Queue: 3 jobs
Job 1
Amino acid sequence: MPHKFHASRRHKFDKKKYRVTNWRDYNESLRNRGDLTIWVSREIGKEWSAQRWTTRGGQRKYSDLAIEVCLTLRSVYALALRQSQGFMRSVVRLMQVDLSVPDFSTLSRRAGGLQITKPAKARTEPVHLVVDSTGVKIYGEGEWLQNKHKTKAMRRSWRKLHLGMDLNTGEIVCSDLTYENVGDPTVLPDLLDQVDGPVNKFLGDGAYNGEPTRRVLETRYGDDVEIIIPPPKTAVLSPKADRNPSSRDKHILAIKDKGRLGWQKQTGYNQRSRIETQMGRWKQVIGNKLKARTFNNQRTETKIGVSILNTITKLGRPAFEAIT
């Protein structure tokens, strides 16, 4: 936010410098990201085949876990569907297990309704939730016509990726993929449904400012939930601000008293930059473009991307200390 409200004197803000204090452990975690045994376990053979249905109709040959493993390898190693099939066949041969591998058309067909495995986790403390959204590109008709026939650039289609992260653990606890015209507050109830455990702090940017967001959070988690959303410059106090000020009224008064930078430091709003960093990790590790063509397959692709980033986080995170 300083670059928005203090652009004329932005150069006066010295950028802090940090150094990694656990470089040996973090360096090993970076190596482990490419370790095949992290993504494929020998135990998958026990749940590779689908359970037989008791109803009439065709039987599935592969379980959801088998499809998920193949699609995970596709995202981790940036492969196409046919290459993913060939890669998984070589993995099965190296493991010396007798398993058939789903072909590329099966992977594409099953991806749409795939239920991603979410590991159960017992939480010992409430969630400090920070949410944000970013755009991810899809390769559609407009780009093809522009590249092939040099036509005039059309309005490019894209998808909006919504992520929610727990500040205590660095884990992505909720996610969703929508069309570009869906507002951030509209998706918030669906994101909160995915969070296991109570939330006692919520951070969001100005897009979440408004009574509907506060009503949803207070209805679910009570009046004690701490809501940190920056009010706009034109925000005014509520009629009850003198007798019973709301959290939004307190934020407005704090900004008038300490300034916006002082309010950010007092409330810890600067921690919201961590979700921006998570967005950068997504586009660096997973990519800024979706490979799938249909919307349901794209949603599955993003769920798998969330699982990959959470696995990478568990492998090890850098610890920093300021040097200036």
Note: The mean pLDDT is 88.
Job 2
Amino acid sequence: MTLTLDPPKSSLLEQLNSPPKASLQILGTHITNEQTKVIDFDLWVDCLKIVGIRSGQFLTNCESDCQSWNHSANGCSFEAILDGWLNEWLGDRTDGRSWTLSKLVSFPDHDCAAMKAHIERLARRIAYGGSVEVVFHTPSIEADALPEKHDVQIRAEWTFDCPFTPTDQVWNELVMNAMVDRKKGWISLNDPKRSYGMSPFRRAIRHGNNSRIVSQEQNANGFTLSVQQFSRWGCDGSP
């Protein structure tokens, strides 16, 4: 996300108090016998766990004026460092100056990989047999060149944590039930809670009507014991 800002500096520093948006998409699809791609579920989650600004850059057409900052190597905040850069760059100039602010987002690579693997496991736990895509949607910038008519491009990169962890059972249940419901849209812990009365796996089997009794026998107490066999839903080749 790129914002065009003109002096005074206060407008720029205020924008740094407003982090960019990021979201997580969980998409389940399969291919029919007619080679048609079917969307089984398309879930979206807001990423709200913001760690802070991890790195920043101050880019001009003059290489000697370019600056960079990294949280791990500096004790000062990016806002304080940027204020100093702007003071040095502006000096006593009174002519019109303008800049753009590009807001970027990063997720720790190992967290992304772990989240993708975890969501795939959740899908298998409800007997889903289709393809699962897990995509983090973040702002991006298209080119390194400065936008026309602007003197400086300022880039600030925020670090986000994943919206939930594999040990968060409330989120796990929410995601699995949304998959079973074939939901397409945003999901949140703030959504009205529903009482399903059974596990997401049992709901998936009942919803898809994809189980059958393969044997039954009566025990000594007169109870009938059944062995059921189920097949996965959302597999390639299914309607």
Note: The chain is about 25% helix and 35% strand.
Job 3
Amino acid sequence: MTSTIINHSKELGALSTFPPKKESNDFMRHHEIYEYIMDYATSRGVLKYIRYKMEVLKVKRCDDYEETGKWTVIVKNRLPGGTSTDVYDGVLVCIGHINRPKMPSYPSQDLFKVEIMHTYSFKDVAPYKEKTVVVVGIGCSGLDAAVETSNVARQAYVSTRSGARVINRVGHRCLPYDTILFRPYLCQMLNILPYQFLSWLLETDYLDL
């Protein structure tokens, strides 16, 4: 979405050796995240090693892997065509865990004649102007979709199987909530105190500040 904002504050999401710009929003927008990543890549001189439009066909251990630990990678160039083989000291597979949408199915879903889509494909709110929208799920992307469509839709609903607290990104003294809650001693409390007590503490203390 063009209005996407990252779910964590820039302090907690930043690389420890490369802090974000001071003028960046506490919760950076998508273009700020892009600029941050590009600035880091430029400062480290890694852009020259990136090759686009390359399809990985095969990754396998070299014949002398036991001695060298090296890998053979076969790739296909999608533009001019042709394949090439290179040998590397190591291989990282970084395709992400949400790169493919997982679409649930429901009984009699085929009888529902209006559009059903995954937030993976949700890019613009214009098609939902003056429509009634139901967002199934209360994860981060679901809440983003609900907030965005509520600005133009006739009515936007959120359907969830269990209750949840929806809180602001910014808390006490205008500090990002994750910098308040994600402290070592609080994380240790999660392993010691009952979940119900911690929920009560969060609702009666932190959320009322």
Note: The first helix runs from residue 10 to 13.
